[in-house]
Amino acid sequence: MVKRYYGGVMSATQVNAASNSGFYNATQQMQAKQANNWPLPPSPGTQKAIFGYGYASAYVSITNLVSNTGVVAADVTGVGTPRNSLAAAGYGGDKAIFGYGTGAAFGVSVTNLVSNTGVVASDTAGVGTARSGLAAAGYGTDKAIFGYGASASVTAITNLVSNTGVVASDTAGVGTARHSLAAAGYGSDKALFGYGNNGGLYRSITNLVSNTGVVSTDTAGVGTARGTLAAAGYGGDKAIFGYGEVSGGTGVTAITNLVSNTGVVATDTTGVGTDRDSLGAAGYGTDKAIFGYGGNNSGVVYSITNLVSNTGVVASDTAGVGTARYYLAAAGYSST
Length: 336
Hints:
The chain is mainly beta. Helices cover 3% and strands 37% of the residues. The protein has 2 domains: 1-39, no CATH class; 48-333, Kelch-type beta propeller (Neuraminidase, 6 Propeller), CATH 2.120.10. The strands form 6 sheets. A 3-stranded antiparallel beta sheet has the order 2-1-18, with no helix packed on it. A 3-stranded antiparallel beta sheet has the order 3-4-5, with no helix packed on it. Strands 6-7-8 form a 3-stranded antiparallel beta sheet, with no helix packed on it. The longest helix is centred in the first third of the chain and has 9 residues, at 26-34.
């Protein structure tokens, strides 16, 4: 077999193993992996999820675990700084991380790691700009990214998270600076940020994230512009944005927008379940998702949840479990 070029059994010229079938020996596989064009198997997805932190009558740090069938458990005593308007994402294939937010001190940059059994660790000293109203998602099969938010002003900076849960310093922002947006993984190894609030103006723009954590410029918005919504992956390689605040901050909605496995956002799907904003969402059961908790503009706070099937269909409300709260975060964890 020719060793000068990998994939030599198919042609005498170098080929891309990610898009060309054929036989590759061990050396050729190694070369393809080093060139970042060896096709990796899709992530199996996480089995369980966790909702955490938020605001009830005060800032809280309680969490609620979600089983692989979408059943939400009772409150678990909080660990770490009580806060809201934070973000969360999965990393390392089976763990999760909560980060940033606002509490007794406006804008914090602490993080809390979540083990593959759903145990939340105490605070880790913050890295990067302290801010709230940001979003987070997994990318690259085992890493995560925090992005956007507000501190003294709105920002578009991002912070990458390694597959061991180490948060990197700020990366210069790309795209429209905004807060109150959402993010989710799609396409098995990529992510996108979407929607949000920019200086009082609700947006429907999105920003795609590559499988190496590079954020792209704005993509023209699809669907109703809104903020304080939530997003999660479903179906193994797709995503869904849902709920949120619209109409200049005077109304809430339950509409959703599905995202294809190439990152294309679809038009609005009629809302199912209670209209609300400031909720959380995460994937569970390998290929399904769950929206949970939230509030409305009349001061009503919920603990209800809405399950999402592996085809992106949102179910009606499930009676709430745990402390009703809003401005919380959620992420998937556990491969079993």
